[in-house]
């Protein structure tokens, strides 16, 4: 762990590595290959995770980035900011996941890499969920599907050599294939960030600057902030975001919850505004 930290591996990534190593060693103990788990020793402490407060984007920034995205990818912003989907879940949205009649989006798969090969897989943590589909997002999806008809894409399920699964994907590349995450980030997302003034345009021949806090995950943070500001409870938000533990949602977003005084002012003001 010390060597990993010296090499710049810190925070949640280091914690994940530690957890995986500990689990592997526990399995070795169970199988009789080791007398005890070294990670269980009192002298071994898991890496600490730096807790940085999420600073959500403004609505103005969300729509500025959307406007700067290529037209065929603009509705991705709506699914992130309006439904709270992760990037892989957005790339994996298929026609049969959208229920316009009940205004519901079924989050049942993502598009990810397995041994450098694109595959369909369950959402992160294997947690399937239904999220509300707001009217404006539904309208954006209808318009997108009219302009860019869904395409049948066949990919392995879960692993590179898994059974083939065919889905009619909402988002595809200009040549009709699935969208590669790396290409999307480098060629569309970062360019949109620059177009919206979030990051600078690079010098000729130079790459865009790294801006991890402004990846597509920022759209999920925006979604969470909007729901909390409207008074949504943590349990419901955790369900919509696909968090298995509402405690995680609370730790990440507690500082965005309106105070009781603020909620009271808004509630009473809204009542008086109607009379």
Question: Secondary structure elements and their pairing?
Answer:
Layout: H1 2-6, H2 11-30, H3 59-68, H4 74-83, H5 87-91, E1 98-99, E2 104-107, E3 110-114, E4 117-121, E5 129-132, H6 135-147, E6 151-156, E7 164-169, H7 181-195, H8 217-229, H9 234-241, H10 246-253, H11 260-273
Antiparallel strand pairs: 1-2, 2-5, 3-4, 6-7
- Outline type: globular
The order of strands across the largest sheet is 1-2-5
CATH topology of the largest domain, anyone?
A: hpI Integrase, Chain A
Distance between the termini: 63 Å
Question: Which class of the largest domain in CATH terms?
Answer: Mainly Alpha
Mean of all residue-level pLDDT scores: 90
Q: How many H/I helices?
A: 11
Fraction in beta strands: 5-15%
Number of domains: 2
For the largest beta-sheet, the strand count, sense and barrel status come to: 3 strands, antiparallel
Fraction of residues in helices? 40-55%
Query: Structural class, please?
Result: alpha+beta
Give the second-level CATH assignment, the architecture of the largest domain.
Answer: Orthogonal Bundle
Number of strand elements:
7
SSE pattern: HHHHHEEEEEHEEHHHHH
CATH homologous superfamily assignment of the largest domain: Intergrase catalytic core
CA gyration radius, whole angstroms = 21 Å
pLDDT < 50 stretches: none
Give a written overview of the molecule.
By secondary structure, this protein is an alpha+beta fold. The protein folds into two domains: 2-40, no CATH class; 59-223, Orthogonal Bundle (hpI Integrase, Chain A). 44% of the residues lie in helices and 12% in strands. The protein contains eleven helices and seven strands. The protein has helices at residues 2-6, 11-30, 59-68, 74-83, 87-91, 135-147, 181-195, 217-229, 234-241, 246-253, 260-273, and strands at residues 98-99, 104-107, 110-114, 117-121, 129-132, 151-156, 164-169. The protein has a three-stranded antiparallel β-sheet. The longest helix is centred in the first third of the chain and has 20 residues, at 11-30. The relative contact order is 0.12. The model has no long low-confidence stretch (mean pLDDT 90). Residues 52-269 form the Tyr recombinase domain. InterPro entries: DNA_brk_join_enz, Integrase-like_cat_sf, Integrase_catalytic, Integrase_recombinase_N, Tyrosine_recombinase_XerCD. Keywords: DNA recombination, DNA-binding. This is Tyr recombinase domain-containing protein. Belongs to the 'phage' integrase family.
């Amino acid at each position: 762990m010390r060597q990993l930290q010296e090499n710049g591996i810190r925070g949640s990534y280091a914690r994940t590595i530690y957890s995986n190593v500990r689990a592997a060693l526990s399995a070795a103990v169970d199988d009789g290959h080791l007398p005890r788990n070294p990670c269980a020793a009192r002298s071994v402490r898991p890496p600490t995770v730096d807790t940085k407060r999420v600073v959500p984007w403004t609505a103005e920034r969300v729509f500025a980035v959307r406007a700067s995205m290529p037209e065929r990818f603009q509705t991705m912003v709506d699914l992130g900011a309006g439904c709270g989907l992760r990037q892989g879940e957005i790339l994996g949205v298929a026609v049969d996941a959208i229920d316009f009649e009940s205004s519901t989006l079924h989050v049942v798969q993502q598009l990810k890499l397995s041994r450098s090969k694109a595959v369909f897989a369950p959402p992160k943590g294997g947690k399937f969920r239904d999220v509300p589909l707001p009217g404006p997002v539904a309208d954006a999806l209808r318009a997108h599907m009219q302009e860019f008809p869904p395409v049948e894409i066949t990919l392995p399920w879960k692993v590179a050599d898994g059974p083939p699964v065919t889905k009619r994907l909402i988002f595809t590349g200009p040549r009709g294939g699935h969208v590669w995450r790396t290409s999307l980030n480098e060629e569309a997302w970062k360019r949109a960030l620059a177009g919206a003034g979030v990051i600078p345009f690079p010098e000729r021949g130079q790459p865009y600057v790294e801006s991890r806090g402004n990846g597509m995950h920022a759209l999920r943070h925006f979604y969470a902030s909007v729901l909390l500001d409207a008074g949504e409870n943590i349990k419901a938000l955790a369900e919509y975001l696909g968090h298995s533990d509402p405690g995680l949602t609370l730790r990440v977003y507690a500082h965005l919850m309106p105070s009781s005084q603020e909620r009271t002012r808004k509630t009473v003001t809204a009542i008086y505004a109607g009379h």
